[in-house]
Recover the amino acids of this structure.
């Protein structure tokens, strides 16, 4: 596997992401999808913990591998998938061989009624946004999409700290000082992660996704697609969520710490339920709340 | 897919369009009916989350008049089956959704709604 390579985001972030994220996923969609099938444990647990009747958003759903969950109670909640890649959505539409609900859209926008979802997940998506401002905006869109009274969300991003199993060669700490992150104490790393699309690989996926492949593609030689990632440093995701919430006017704490007021003010808050590192990723689980203090 | 479960959540998000931007109105739709597994427990939990009036109105636009104007107090199986059909078995495959406020058109193709905005339309 070719090495991960440090990069500096130089052009217009929208244009940059179109080239190094969206068009790549549209090209590699069937092959990418054939390698993505096993849900990570913390995500599966989160989805299993949701009350029956809840409706949720998978922001950056990709091939929709989380749409069929929870495995133990299929159909007890409904997750609607949002993605920027139309070709991945065509796959997500039939995730688990049942018709799913998917929407073609941008994680920086909010094409929903505010607070209309009970829960949201954002798995391996925010790290494809190329500036801190855009990563924060995507986080705010997630917070705004879930109920202000009980909404829950889980966010996963790629970590600078990689485990041995990931087989990726990281650049030695050569991260160019990204101007945009200078103010933040927790600095991540901007990198290209190559995706190698070989003729064999396209041939293999052809059986599964006959409609989206054609003979010309399989005749091509191996192609390398560089995908842009912002690898998160320790503490950076928590800080991102905290800043995103504060800017939306939310108190970042547990509602239990808010019981000492005069009982005359209505407070909207966001609690960080858990955060940590799992298999080369950082994750954070949040819950929105409202209380009178 | 645009089933009515999704339609009930979607709202126009074009620049400056912040009121009367829900529910989107269907136009020139092609509908397909597909059976889905009936899950009454899901429906009972989900009903309080629905914008009921918007659902009834959208169902009528698609030619289904089986739902009452208000959700009944008794959620019997007969009612839940009607709701199940309207929410989860009616698929809008082609057509468009129009914002009642700014007339923005969100096309639906191969069952996937396009909610992307052009750069100048983003708020
Ligand atoms: Zn509008």
């Amino acid at each position: 596997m070719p090495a991960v390579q440090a990069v500096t985001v130089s052009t217009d972030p929208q244009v940059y992401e179109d080239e190094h994220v969206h068009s790549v996923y549209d090209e590699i969609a069937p092959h990418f999808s054939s390698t993505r099938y096993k849900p990570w444990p913390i995500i599966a647990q989160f989805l299993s913990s949701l009350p029956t009747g809840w409706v949720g958003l998978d922001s950056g759903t990709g091939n929709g591998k989380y749409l069929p969950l929870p495995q133990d109670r299929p159909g007890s909640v409904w997750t609607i998938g949002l993605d920027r890649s139309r070709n991945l959505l065509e796959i997500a539409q039939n995730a688990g061989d049942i018709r799913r609900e998917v929407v073609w859209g941008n994680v920086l926008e909010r094409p929903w009624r505010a607070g209309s979802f009970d829960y949201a997940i954002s798995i391996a998506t925010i790290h494809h946004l190329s500036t801190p401002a855009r990563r924060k905006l995507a986080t705010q869109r997630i917070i705004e999409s879930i109920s202000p009274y009980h909404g829950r969300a889980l966010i996963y991003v790629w970590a600078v700290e990689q485990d041995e199993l990931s087989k990726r060669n990281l650049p030695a700490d050569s991260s160019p000082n990204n101007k945009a992150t200078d103010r933040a104490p927790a600095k991540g790393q901007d990198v290209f992660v190559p995706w190698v699309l070989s003729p064999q690989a396209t041939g293999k996926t052809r059986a599964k996704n006959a409609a989206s492949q054609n003979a010309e593609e399989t005749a091509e030689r191996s192609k390398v697609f560089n995908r842009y990632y912002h690898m998160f440093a320790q503490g950076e995701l928590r800080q991102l969520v905290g800043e995103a919430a504060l800017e939306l006017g939310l108190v970042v704490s547990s509602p239990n710490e808010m019981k000492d007021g005069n009982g005359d003010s209505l407070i909207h808050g966001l609690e960080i339920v858990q955060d940590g590192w799992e298999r080369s990723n950082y994750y954070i689980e949040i819950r929105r709340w409202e209380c009178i203090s | 897919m645009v089933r009515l479960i999704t339609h009930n959540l979607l709202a126009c998000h074009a620049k400056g369009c912040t009121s009367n931007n829900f529910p989107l109105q269907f136009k020139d739709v092609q509908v397909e009916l597909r059976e889905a597994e009936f899950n009454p427990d899901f429906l009972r939990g989900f009903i309080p989350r629905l914008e009921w009036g918007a659902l009834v109105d959208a169902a009528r636009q698609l030619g289904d008049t089986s739902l009452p104007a208000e959700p009944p107090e008794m959620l019997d199986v007969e009612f839940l089956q009607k709701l199940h059909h309207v929410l989860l078995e009616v698929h809008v495959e082609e057509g468009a959704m129009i914002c009642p406020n700014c007339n923005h058109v969100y096309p639906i193709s191969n069952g996937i709604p396009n909610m992307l905005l052009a750069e100048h339309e983003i708020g």
User: Anything to note?
Assistant: Chain B has a mean pLDDT of 96. The two ends of chain B are 26 Å apart (CA to CA). Residues B 12, 14, 17, 21, 99, 101-102, 104 surround zinc ion (CB under 6 Å).
